[in-house]
Every structure is written in structure tokens, then in C-alpha cells.
Amino acid sequence: MTTLTTPNDTAAVLEYRLSAADRCDSCGAQAYIAAEVNGSELLFCAHHGRKYEEKLRAVATTWHDETARLSEAD
User: What is the chain's Cα-based Rg?
Assistant: First the structure.
């Protein structure tokens, strides 16, 4: 999650940290999963995130999953 400081010094937490500008490192689609591995951030679409999840979780220091956004109603 991203924390922003507002003018009155209170912190506002954004619900999502990945945006449409974040792209999957495998195919270029919108990223919904971010994993930190060896100090580097890897971004994946839902498909590739699930495909590599088992192996990545074994070595990732963080795993951020926003795939629930795909099933939200507009």
C-alpha cells in the first residue's frame, strides 16, 4: 500500500498501489501482482502471477496481490 501525507500531516492510505501504468514483466499486460525478489520488484498480470506464484513465493521477500480488483463491479 502507498501512504500519502496530507497537508494537515495525517496519513491517508490508498487502497491500491498498482496502477494501469504498471505492466507485467512477462507479457506487458496490466500488473496486479508485485513480488520483491533479491531487492528487485517483479510485476505480473494475474495470469503470469498465478503461473509463477509457487516458485516466487519460495524466494520472494514480499508478495502484493491485487487480483481481487478483477472481479469488482464498476
Answer: 14
Report the C-alpha gap between 48 and 55 in whole angstroms.
12
User: 49 near 73, Cβ under 8 Å?
Assistant: no
How far are the Cα atoms of 8, 19, 55, 66 from residue 16, in angstroms, in the given order? 22, 8, 24, 7
For the stretch 15-59, pLDDT in tens is: 679 999 999 999 999 999 999 999 999 999 999 999 999 999 999
Domain borders along the chain are 20-71
- What gap in Å lies between CA 19 and CA 3, rounded to an integer? 15
Q: Is the distance from CB of 45 to CB of 51 less than 8 angstroms? A: no
Residue 34 and residue 40 in contact, taking contact as beta carbons nearer than 8 Å? no
